[in-house]
Design brief:
Layout (H helix, E strand, L loop, with lengths): L13 H21 L15 H15 L3 H14 L4 H9 L2 E2 L4 E2 L1 H9 L5 H7 L3 H13 L7 H18 L4 H12 L8 H16 L4 H10 L6 H14 L4 H5 L1 H7 L3 H22 L8 H13 L3 H15 L5 H18 L13 H17 L3 H15 L8 H15 L3 H15 L15 H11 L3 H14 L4 H13 L3 H14 L8 H10 L1
Antiparallel strand pairs: 1-2
Helix pairs in contact: 1-12, 2-3, 2-4, 3-4, 4-5, 4-7, 6-7, 7-8, 8-9, 9-10, 9-11, 10-11, 11-12, 12-14, 14-15, 15-16, 16-17, 16-18, 17-18, 18-19, 19-20, 19-21, 20-21, 21-22, 22-23, 23-24, 23-25, 24-25, 25-26, 26-27
């Protein structure tokens, strides 16, 4: 398994710049002192037997890295070694709730608790200490069957952790789980909950720089273009803290994407995917348990680098697994990768799997078919895809971004038909919907940022100054995207702003240093910079 090498970059914020090397040095010192294992260091006093402690604490550390399958196995090992160990059942129950992925298995969580005792009162009686009883209470709230609405359940769960944190203010685990619960609350267009969470995790990180949740939740808290520089410290050390967890190897790339550090994105996700391959083999899990999420991010990094052949190799890796499994996430990842390849490269989408009757993947496939066809002048195919996308959009169960995709596809289809004003109007509608969403956390979910497309259409229409503004807005939401840099460079040059054009072309050249031979954008950048 390749090791993640920590190479410090200059942060954009002085705070991050000052603390990044200190955090890494402290992590190195702590690792040598405590002989930390490969999941990080956590502490939670409890009444479990000494034999069960290692499995329990390892499970807790894995839980903080969202390594839910591994954590569940470790918690089960702990309760097997000590059947009266209440917190082992609590830990297993928490593995059925994935708060930042909107995945919740209430039946599985309640079954895990029931293995300790039949009722909440009986389970509380099994707890060896008051602290353990209080911890059990958080799971009881989470799996209370009366909380059928997700938002209400999340608020009640966060309130339970807040009470526990206030009762035990020095308990780093209570502080960490409270911070995570805040990030699981519905976002109302601002970052208030995430910044509150970050403040809590900064405290944990300062006390225990080897805590996997501290680095992990800080990355999530700062995962947007504005706050990403503050997350660079955590991104630099998280993979070092928990190198056995593939998600810990992947997570730094959330910050690297927000900063347009494409080579770092690629390195992180290569390590993450390969670690998952090794884990699946070691545990004997089915192949769909591999970390195809990281493979999808690796593909995106390669596409931004102009390494289209390497991006296509990522599809070659997932294809044989996706075509043989019933696992919906793997099949959806495969279809998303096919679609992204077509949209980013401008090449027609020829490999179109049959519809899965899955909201997101069906919608994205229809969009990619139409978008790539329109870009290649295949207007009949584009129009049919637009009709298909409209039909899918009538089903409310389908992709939440379907309206954005519909407007984007309407824009490129109109442009392919020479209907410039209709294309621009549709692109503006896409922007209106897109701005109701926060900037993407990773690769754009709708594949083609609306500001970027609007800029390209304006540039083609000769409205260069307006185009320059759209590319600027696109780069604020998706920093250093190759297509936006290219558009911004062209607009600046046409406006006679050659100093700005040079800056954009230099960034574009840096993105494309490893591009496939014959990359037209790289050739254009080099010609200008000569």
């Amino acid at each position: 398994m390749p090791r993640f090498r920590s190479v410090f970059s200059l942060a954009l914020v002085a705070f991050a710049l000052a603390l990044a090397p200190l955090a890494a040095a402290r992590a190195d010192e702590e690792a040598a002192t405590y002989g930390v294992d490969l999941l990080g260091r956590v502490e939670l006093p409890n009444s479990g037997t000494p034999e069960a402690q290692k499995a329990f604490l390892s499970g807790l550390a894995a839980l903080h890295s969202f390594w839910y399958d591994e954590a569940a196995d470790l918690f089960r090992e702990a309760r097997t070694l000590d059947p009266t160990f209440a917190l082992a059942y609590w830990g297993e129950a928490l593995t059925y709730n994935h708060p930042l992925w909107s995945q919740f298995d209430g039946e599985g969580g309640r079954a895990a608790l029931a293995r300790l005792a039949a009722t909440a009162q009986e389970r509380a009686a099994e707890a060896g200490t008051e602290l353990e009883r209080d911890y059990l209470t958080t799971a009881e709230v989470l799996y209370d069957p009366t909380h059928e609405d997700k938002a209400a359940r999340d608020r009640a769960y966060s309130a339970a952790w807040q009470r526990l944190h206030e009762k035990y203010p020095q308990d780093l685990e209570a502080k960490s789980f409270y911070a995570l619960s805040l990030q699981g609350l519905p976002r109302s267009g601002d970052s208030r909950h995430h910044m509150r969470s970050a403040a809590l995790m900064e405290e944990v990180f300062a006390i225990n720089p080897l805590h996997p949740g501290a680095a992990h939740y800080l990355i999530h808290a700062y995962d947007d273009p504005v706050h990403a520089p503050l997350g660079l410290r955590a991104a630099e050390v998280y993979a070092k803290i928990a190198p056995a967890a593939n998600h810990a190897l992947h997570m730094p790339s959330h910050i690297f994407v927000q900063l347009g550090m494409w080579e770092r994105v690629a390195v992180s996700n290569i390590a993450a995917y390969e670690a998952s391959v090794a884990w699946v083999e070691r545990r004997g899990h089915p192949l769909h348990k591999r970390d195809f999420h990281s493979l999808l991010w690796l593909q995106y990094a390669h596409l931004q680098q102009g390494r289209f052949d390497k991006a296509a190799e990522c599809i070659d890796i997932i294809r044989p697994v996706a075509l043989k499994t019933d696992d919906q996430r793997t099949r959806s990842a495969y279809r998303a990768m096919l679609a992204r390849q077509a949209v980013e490269t401008g090449r027609p989408l020829r490999e179109v799997p049959e519809l899965d009757n899955n909201a997101a993947s069906d919608t994205l496939t229809a969009f990619a078919v139409g978008y790539s066809a329109a870009q290649n002048g295949e207007t009949r195919t584009a129009k049919k895809a637009l009709t298909d996308l409209k039909a899918l959009g009538k089903n409310k169960a389908h992709h939440t971004d379907s309206q954005i995709l519909l407007h984007l596809l309407s824009a490129v289809t109109a442009a392919a038909n020479g209907e410039s004003e209709a294309a621009l109007a549709a692109a503006r509608q896409a922007i209106e919907v897109e701005l109701t969403h926060l900037p993407p956390s990773g690769p754009p979910g709708n594949f083609k940022p609306a500001h970027e497309l609007h800029g390209e259409l304006l540039l083609a229409a000769g409205r260069v100054e307006e185009a320059a503004e759209q590319f600027h807005r696109s780069l604020l939401r998706t920093p250093k995207r190759t297509a936006s840099l290219l558009g911004a460079a062209r607009a600046a040059h046409q406006l006679g702003h050659d100093a700005s054009a040079r800056k954009f072309y230099e960034q574009l050249r840096d993105n494309l240093r490893q591009a496939d031979a014959g990359n037209a954008a790289l050739a254009e950048a080099r010609d200008f910079l000569k």
